[in-house]
Write a structure and sequence with these properties.
The structure holds two protein chains of two kinds.
Chain A: H1 6-19, E1 24-30, H2 42-59, E2 65-71, H3 76-82, E3 89-93, E4 100-103, H4 109-123, H5 130-137, E5 143-149
Chain B: H1 2-8, E1 13-19, H2 24-29, E2 37-40, E3 44-47, H3 52-67
Antiparallel strand pairs in B: 2-3
Classes of the chains: A alpha+beta, B alpha+beta.
Chain lengths: 152, 72
């Protein structure tokens, strides 16, 4: 059973057709197979199943989104390369960068952020003031921002 | 907003949106009581939606704290 309603799919398909310019990549760190659950990890498996589905459903609405999927057991090297310690993780970017990172299923409120990020990254759309841009581009040390959110 | 900062400088800024209910241990570790809660460099936190200038102010604070630490 799809996670997106027919109405939402149709709406998104239209938005993507009109607003996606450059291709974007969604990199998904997850359990590729969610048919079997490991005792103690049932919830994680369920979340991965939903994340896998939502990403596939969204990507199917346009040919400008490419999905790369890495499995927690088979692709440890990729997990290490991207510094991913929790799944599901959904990263969005273009080229080599993945500036937008989500941990957990991008549902509810986070789903609209997910869609907006896809559009912003596709369009290189950055809506920050000049002062903020100057500051951020001039950073000489690393900044790790964690935003705790909730889908509802 | 956090993702926008990362888009502006992906080499330096890492921005994670975390579903607090899916990661209860992590949420407990950061004492997340209400959302949104934003934690910067494990050093500075803020709660609720804030305007860009206030957000950047907290980023600056976190960066200053990191840069003023003597090298180990």
């Amino acid at each position: 059973m799809p996670l997106l309603s027919d109405k939402d799919s149709a709406y998104l398909r239209e938005v993507f057709a009109q607003q996606l310019v450059n291709p974007v990549t969604v990199t998904l760190f997850t359990q590729k197979s969610t048919l079997l659950t490991v005792p103690g990890h049932e919830q994680e498996t369920e979340y991965c199943k939903q994340a896998n589905e939502i990403v596939q459903e969204v990507a199917a609405l346009t040919d400008k989104i490419t999905v790369e999927t890495y499995d927690v057991r088979a692709d440890a090297a990729q997990f290490a390369a991207y510094g991913i310690e929790r799944i599901p993780a959904i990263l969005i970017g273009a080229g080599d960068d993945r500036p937008a990172r989500f941990f957990g299923v991008t549902a509810g409120y986070e789903f609209s952020t997910f869609v907006q990020d896809l559009l912003d990254i596709s369009n290189g759309n950055i809506e920050l003031s000049e002062a903020t841009l100057d500051y951020v581009r001039g950073l000489t040390s690393d900044v790790h921002i964690q935003v705790f959110s909730t889908p509802t | 907003m956090a993702h926008q900062l990362a888009m502006a400088n992906p080499e330096r800024v890492k921005a994670d949106v975390i579903d607090a209910s899916e990661f209860p241990q992590l949420s407990r570790a950061y004492s997340v009581m209400a959302v949104p809660k934003i934690v910067i460099n494990d050093a500075v936190s803020l709660e609720g939606a804030v305007p860009e200038s206030a957000f950047v102010g907290q980023v600056k604070k976190a960066v200053e704290m990191a840069e003023s630490k003597p090298d180990a």
